[in-house]
Amino acid sequence: MVATKDAPTPPPADEPATTVIGKRYVDAADTVELLCTASGTGPLTYGGQPMTIKAPKALPASD
């Protein structure tokens, strides 16, 4: 994480972002969760292990 004043600039349009803004990322043990507020080109890691996008929760059916 970086301070607001040190926030990275968005990646160039011709370079796809590997971290997606608005997505939640979790570690393999599901102990750390973060919300991505700035897209970027580098992978997110925690303890040397890559973090993955958290699957959305299914909403209950409304009848």
SSE topology:
Blueprint: E1 24-26, E2 33-35, E3 45-46, E4 49-50, E5 52-53
Antiparallel strand pairs: 1-2, 1-5, 3-4
List keywords for this structure.
single chain; 63 residues; mainly beta; 3-stranded antiparallel β-sheet; two-stranded antiparallel sheet; 19% strand; extended
What is the multimeric organization of the chains shown?
A: single chain
Mean pLDDT: 80
Q: State the helix count.
A: 0
Rounded to an integer, what's the Rg over CA atoms? 14 Å
The share of residues in extended strands comes to 15-25%
How are helices and strands ordered from N to C? Answer: EEEEE
What spatial form do the alpha-carbon principal axes imply?
extended
Adjacency order of strands in the biggest sheet: 2-1-5
Extended strand count: 5
State the helical fraction.
under 10%
| N/C terminus separation | 42 Å
Q: Main β-sheet: number of strands, strand sense, barrel status?
A: 3 strands, antiparallel
What structural class results from the helix and strand content? mainly beta
